[in-house]
């Protein structure tokens, strides 16, 4: 029913867009700086890919509008450009996403305030779209392409200089304080011991402190009391149970396949326990990645031995119904590991 309603709204939008005021085709405007490219890749492309491509993409172009390529965007719809460079606030694109008139897009509901603000800022700055030429110009010397943070190499940053040196206890504090001082904001007052205990317990275990824990921590007056508390909480199995849940959500873990078939997965707990144990063992992230993507190909210590890495971690690929798996493995892979989207090439029967 939901899919039918979306199609109805899309057809209506196409008809209404066709009757919108005509703007001449927009002259192409390409991003030329790294910051412009990064702003588009981090804020605009995800909107076009997730919210718009279903009706205005490569396969379907309602109102003759394609929002997945620079060429399609600058060509506009069947009635012309969707951005007015002279009067950006009056652009058709902003009118429909802000749902000011008869056309209200996307049909599934209004965009979040953050996405709307990103669209407004982008349009007001000229609706600059990255091109292959601009990407080549701003590529850093190490060969990495600009854009999404997930594709950028890890870099060391020197802790910045701050004014209030007495507030700093660790190098990380300098990064926090530098931003506060830049905005003219004073740091909050130090938290009371009970507040620190509650924050640590909820953050690391997801549970409130017990009465005994409260008494023991408040009576510990040693300077390293907080450090000992954190070490104890990290050493507890409850830590992996709390933080492993975040990764299980990313991997779409479940005890059954869901949807109308909803077959039980009687051994799914093995993958769950593997993730919990990985957090408790402080498994290096690169090893965590390898074991889940190709644990069945990793060599065993002894010939013929079936390792835990070969049997449990590759279940990462198995969550969801059989129909869901065959069509979205690529998306699961890229959204989980690189926080990005990808269009997969797959057989028509998949």
Short description:
The chain has 350 residues and is mainly α. Helices cover 48% and strands 0% of the residues. The protein has four domains: 134 residues, no CATH class; 35 residues, no CATH class; 43 residues, no CATH class; 93 residues, no CATH class.
Structural account:
The chain has 350 residues and is an all-alpha fold. It has 4 domains: 2-135, no CATH class; 156-190, no CATH class; 193-235, no CATH class; 239-301 and 308-337, no CATH class. It is 48% helix and 0% strand. The protein contains 15 helices and no strands. It has helices spanning 2-18, 34-52, 70-75, 92-97, 113-124, 132-138, 171-182, 193-204, 211-219, 225-235, 237-250, 268-280, 285-294, 308-311, 322-337. Helix 8 runs parallel beside helix 10 (225-235). Mean pLDDT is 78; it is low at 1-23, 133-146 and 320-324.
| Cα separation of the termini | 23 Å
> What portion of residues is helical?
40-55%
Question: Strand percentage, roughly?
Answer: under 5%
Mean pLDDT: 78
Shape: globular
- Give the helices and strands as they follow along the chain: HHHHHHHHHHHHHHH
Strand tally is 0
Radius of gyration: 26 Å
Q: Which residue ranges are poorly predicted, with pLDDT under 50 across at least 5 consecutive positions?
A: 1-23, 133-146, 320-324
- How many domains? 4
The computed structural class is mainly alpha
Number of helices: 15
Q: Summarize the biggest pleated sheet.
A: none
Entry keywords:
single chain; 350 residues; mainly alpha; 4 domains; 15 helices; globular
């Amino acid at each position: 029913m939901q899919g039918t309603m979306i199609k109805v709204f899309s057809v209506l939008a196409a008809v209404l867009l066709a009757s919108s005021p005509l703007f001449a085709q927009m002259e192409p405007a390409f991003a030329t700086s790294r910051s412009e490219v990064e702003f588009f890749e981090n804020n605009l492309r995800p909107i076009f890919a997730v919210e718009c491509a279903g009706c205005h993409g490569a396969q379907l172009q309602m109102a003759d509008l394609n929002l997945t390529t620079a060429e399609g965007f600058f060509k506009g719809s069947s009635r012309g450009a969707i951005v007015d460079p002279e009067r950006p606030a009056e652009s058709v694109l902003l009118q429909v996403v802000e749902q000011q008139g008869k056309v209200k897009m996307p049909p599934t509901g209004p965009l979040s305030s953050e996405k709307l603000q990103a669209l407004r800022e982008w349009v007001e700055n000229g609706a600059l779209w990255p091109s292959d030429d601009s990407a080549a110009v701003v590529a850093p010397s190490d060969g990495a392409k600009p854009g999404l943070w997930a594709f950028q190499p890890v870099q060391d940053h020197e802790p910045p200089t701050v004014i209030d040196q007495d507030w700093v206890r660790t190098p990380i504090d300098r990064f926090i304080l530098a931003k506060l001082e830049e905005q003219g904001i004073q740091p909050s007052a130090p938290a009371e011991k009970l507040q620190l205990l509650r924050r640590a317990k909820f953050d690391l275990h997801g549970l409130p402190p017990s009465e005994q824990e409260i008494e023991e921590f408040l009576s510990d007056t040693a300077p390293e009391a907080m450090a000992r508390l954190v070490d104890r909480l990290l050493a507890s199995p409850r830590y992996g149970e709390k933080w492993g849940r975040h990764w299980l959500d990313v991997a779409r873990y479940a005890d059954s396949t869901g949807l109308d078939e909803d077959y039980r997965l009687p051994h799914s707990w093995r993958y769950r326990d593997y993730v919990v144990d990985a957090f408790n063992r402080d498994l290096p992230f690169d090893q965590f990645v390898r074991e889940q993507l190709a644990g069945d190909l990793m060599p065993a210590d002894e010939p013929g031995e079936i390792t835990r890495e070969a049997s449990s971690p590759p279940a990462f690929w198995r969550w969801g119904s059989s129909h869901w798996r065959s069509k979205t493995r690529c998306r699961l892979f890229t959204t989980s590991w690189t926080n990005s989207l990808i269009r997969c090439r797959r057989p028509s029967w998949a």
